[in-house]
Design a protein that fits this description.
Distance between the termini: 51 Å
Helix content: 25-40%
Order of helices and strands: EHEHHEHEHHEEHEEEHEHH
CATH architecture of the largest domain: 3-Layer(aba) Sandwich
CATH topology of the largest domain: Rossmann fold
Number of strands: 10
Oligomer: single chain
Radius of gyration: 19 Å
Structural class: alpha/beta
CATH class of the largest domain: Alpha Beta
Shape: globular
Length: 255
């Protein structure tokens, strides 16, 4: 039976193409925008949280790629009911990209070229992981903002926070958020004592698109910190994007 893949996660859609599985992709979310030239013809089935299950059912996927953080649990139950094989992913650390590639290679390794693409990607990831370490870098206390009104940041057990920790940048507040749920993205009220000690404020390009006008407001939160905008896709998208993302981390550390 020919495989028909639906991806409900932007990072995984990009990875599907990187593994040479683009011709097998029959559905994606509206947020799955990379690689731009390839996804255009793939039908959209809503968003990561609000999936159009009726449309997805009509597209008859045999495999559906989901993520613990990005997709709702009730959606996964509905996918099982329609008879699809659900591949659940949950990378929480840059190192987990290796296991992620292996997971998809195991699921689709009988497709032409997948194992070779997976081996090449694994090698590239291992190289970048080896080059991106905090061994000789000064530690820095960082506030990484993903939303405005209210201000929202990331817990230390998220992929994004652990990505930054790779270069010795430790996100504040110093708390973990658990496997899933709102606690993984704490709200910052603006009067927390630890804000005085933040050395860098990073304004993400996604999911909220911070503009130049937000710089002054963020600076007021942490008067002693350096404030700058950063590429949220490179820092938070796992899979193939992590290769470029780890290089980008090193550039940020130098700048």
């Amino acid at each position: 039976m020919s495989k028909r893949i639906a991806s409900l996660v932007p990072s995984l859609t990009e990875l599907v193409f990187a593994l040479g599985l683009g011709p097998r992709l029959v559905a994606r979310t509206g947020y799955c925008i990379h690689p731009a030239g390839n996804v255009r013809e793939v039908p959209k089935v809503g968003g990561t949280k609000a999936v159009n299950l009726a449309k997805l059912r009509r597209l008859a996927p045999t495999h559906v790629l989901v993520n613990v953080d990005e997709n709702r649990h009730d959606i996964v139950a509905a996918l099982h009911e329609m008879g699809a094989q659900v591949i659940v992913t949950h990378p929480c650390d840059p190192e987990d990209n290796l296991a992620l590639v292996d997971q998809l290679a195991q699921a689709f390794g009988d497709e032409p070229g997948v194992m070779a693409h997976a081996a090449a990607l694994r090698s590239a990831l291992q190289h970048e992981l080896g080059e991106t370490r905090d061994d000789f870098r000064p530690a820095s206390r960082v506030l990484y903002l993903i939303w405005c009104d209210p201000w929202m940041t990331v817990a230390r057990d998220t992929y994004l926070s652990r990505m930054l920790a790779r270069i010795g940048w430790h996100t504040e507040p110093a708390q973990e958020g658990g496997v899933q749920g709102a606690a993984r993205y704490p709200v910052v009220q603006g009067d927390e004592p630890w804000l005085r000690d933040v050395q860098q404020v990073l304004l993400s390009s996604e999911p909220f698109r911070f503009e130049a006008g937000h710089l002054a407001r963020a600076q007021a939160l942490c008067p002693q910190a350096r404030v700058r905008r950063v590429d949220g896709e490179l820092l938070s998208w796992y899979g193939v994007r992590a290769v470029q993302g780890l290089r980008y981390l090193r550039e940020l550390a130098r700048g």
